[in-house]
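User: I'm curious whether this sequence folds into something compact or stays loose and floppy. Could you predict its structure so I can see for myself?
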Amino acid sequence: MSTKSSLKSLLHSAENEHNPLTMSDEQILEQIYSTHVHSDTKFDVDSLFTLVENTLRRSTHIVDNVVQGSHASLEHIDDKIPQFNSPLCTLKQISHEMSCKPPSEEVAHKTTLAILNKLSNYEWDAKAVLTIAAFALEYSEFWFLAQYQPTDPLAKSIAILKRVPVLTKPAALQKYRQPIVELNSLVKATLQVIELIFELEKLTTYNTKDVPALEDAIEQIPVDVYWAIITIVAVVTQIDCLTTESELKQELSHYGQKINIILSKLRKQITLCRQQIEEVEYYRKLRKILQTPTEIMEVFKFLIFFKGAPQLLFDGATKTTVDITVLKKKNVYLFVSSLDITDEEILVLRPVFDYIKTNDEYKIVWIPIVEQWTEQLRKKFEILKSKMPWYVVQHFGSIAGYKYIKEEWHFKKMPMVVVLNTRGKVQHSNAFHLIQAHGMKAFPYTSWNEEQINREINWVGSVVGGIHADVNSWIEKQKYIFFYGGNDREWIQQFTKYATALANDANIKGANISIELFCVEKEDKSFVKRFWSGIESLFVTKVHRTVDAVTQEVQKMLSYKNETGWALLSKGPAVVLSGHGTTILKTVAEFEKWKEVVIKKGFEFTFKEYHDKIVTTTHRCSHLELPNVAGKLPETIKCPDCPRTMEIFISYKCCHNGHAGNAIR
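Assistant: Here's the prediction. I'll summarize afterward.
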């Protein structure tokens, strides 16, 4: 490459570095950040902007009248005139910096950087307001003189000095009409941009964690201010070119395009920010309402419906639409779920409904949570609604308090029941598992009821009672019962063989010990599902309580859910012990080794003693899989078999049945 062409390439590269039309936002930011000094400079930018708005609104209106030859008036608008000490010297310095510059993007860029350096101690919105204020002084004076020069001799003399007639004589207006209209429109658009920047700055009192849209918008403010200032600089240059009748002109179309893009972007950002701020304010108000005694109907209305939405419920019992006043002065069970709820989960609440339908103090309301309704989901909703005899929220839109339900009540698409009293106070943040585990025994399902039930040590009846007639009879007769199952059929056969032999042994019979066997896995799938759902629900009701022997046994049982084999021995409703397939099978298989001790120490004590001995010689990792249930799970869980804290792993499951897979901790 020749020396001449190399020099030309370097000059072209240098020009591009100072041409804003070829620079990226990152390059502009890099240059303008060096001009900014973070300081505590106090400045009444609000008052100055009010004066600038007054001035430019009226002066741009005069331009429109002069160009169009009309006499439309703005006199009916009352301008707010604040008490304000004008920073006149600063404004004059800025005005001087912009005046009489040759038309060029590079010069406009350098001028803008010079202005930013002069205003280095001011906030970004103040830099923009001060610059447009300096422009407004000159621009408004120019067109003020244009308006009054025909009738005022002083105005006429000053107008000549300012070269006003060059643009305002009829012949000049005909010649320069289009560029005047263009620059006047650009002044209006730039004022709007600065107004929106100013508005955006006022929103920064909110935390960006609460209003995420603010973060991106705030990051862009310096670049937006830069484009507002350079556009004003370009407009001043174009006015100078026109009034001096120069052959050169400042091209404004590129700046107009950029300002309109910024204007559109800022409007969208502010709209989004205001939506998010409304959500934040709603969230705060909802939290306050739920903490302050308020009539339940008002709480329900605020939680569910947006302003203007129809506030109706569907009564599943009468198949009619009713007003939400039916909830007034009632204790309300909010049954919250997605549309993936199963028939079994709906049936959990059926006994509660059957009990309260004769008691007018309690009502159940299903709140379906759907993020985006479709025609298919509407049809699914109608099918589910037809299966529910209680009230249903008849509303095909977003639930107003969805964020609160998700974050404060920890809704995770699985069904939950929030219990509210007549004053809208939460009595239980999720009683679904309490209802599933204990049924009507825990009514009316407050946290106090849960605490009372959790003190009980006999929990077998809660899980299997009421779902199998034989088991109910054995529990009532205080018989020993082996509940067992697992994923390995061979293990089940082996356990059945040895446990049957144990139950029929002459020593056991002779001691009047009655032992029954119940294989969970031999029942239908619906029973197996209800059995493990009962164990899971029992665990969820206990997991946040102080860990005791009962909680440990329930946790042990849950850890056996996906094992090859397991067994639980109870006497009536009381649990004797539960064990993993490896240890429990060996205990019953080696019955001959400890059966003589049964006569001396009793069956229960001997069985536990021998099983504990085998456990100490058998190493096995404990696995606990928790479904993605509604409600908050503890950060740590103690191992049910040793004093250590269990490690946490994340796994995912999909059964290919049309329901979404759940994460499992």
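Summary: The radius of gyration is 39 Å. DSSP finds 27 helices and 13 strands in the chain.
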